Amino acid sequence: MDPLRGHGFGWTTPCPADGEAASLRHVEALWADYFPDAADYEVSRRELPGGVRFAVTRGDFHAELEVSGGHWHGAPRLRLSGSAGSRRVRQTERTSTATVERLRLAGGLLGGILVGWSASHLLTAPPQFTIDMLFVLGGLLLVVMLVVLVMTGAGIGGWLGQEIAGNLWATTLRALDGDSALRTDLQRWRALVRSLAHHRDLLAGGRRGLPFRCEFSDSGVVAQLHSPPMTPAIPR
């Protein structure tokens, strides 16, 4: 299991009129089973307009799951979406991107400052000249110098940023290789997603061939929605 991959999903499926409330109870029970407080998981719940977002954190692991409802052509629908991964990887992505962009910008500014410094000497101590073709060529030369030095500075800054980002990623990968707790947490997440997929198929009438389009018509499924969730084996 590669912790660098994004472990996310997003589903929308038809549901009965009370399917959102029943699904919310079902998902909340699953969330408590897979990420119990007794296992040192930091669990939070946040009310959103039209839905609820669950979040869990333990060590380097972080996951979020959102349950929301809505209507499509007057028919109720349920949306389940979530993602999980390494907080260290996300921080490295943000830091690496910011480092490359800042050094590229700094390099470009340094090139522009160099051209401005050179031009300032001409303004403070102008030589004796007349406005002729040579004067025009000198101005064009300053413009070319500005473009070349700005681009060169940005390129050098970007290269330095890439080198720093490479070192950051190397450190992150070494830390991930020895993080067995993160791999166990990602296995729990994948098991939870399988349970949610089963619930999605139940809402859609149990027809996996059309999980997002089939209309809800089996009244017997409503009773199953209100029954206690069946939790598969949870990785330890």
Main attributes of the structure:
single chain; about 240 residues; alpha+beta; Alpha-D-Glucose-1,6-Bisphosphate, Chain A, domain 4; 2 domains; five-stranded antiparallel β-sheet; 5 helices; 5 strands
Helix content: 40-55%
Q: Which stretches are poorly predicted, pLDDT < 50 over at least 5 residues?
A: 207-230
Q: Give the overall shape.
A: elongated
Output the strand order for the largest sheet: 1-5-4-3-2
Q: How many beta-strand segments?
A: 5
Instruction: Report the total helices.
Output: 5
| Biggest beta-sheet profile | 5 strands, antiparallel
Within the CATH hierarchy, at the fold level, what is the topology of the largest domain?
Alpha-D-Glucose-1,6-Bisphosphate, Chain A, domain 4
The helix-and-strand class reads alpha+beta
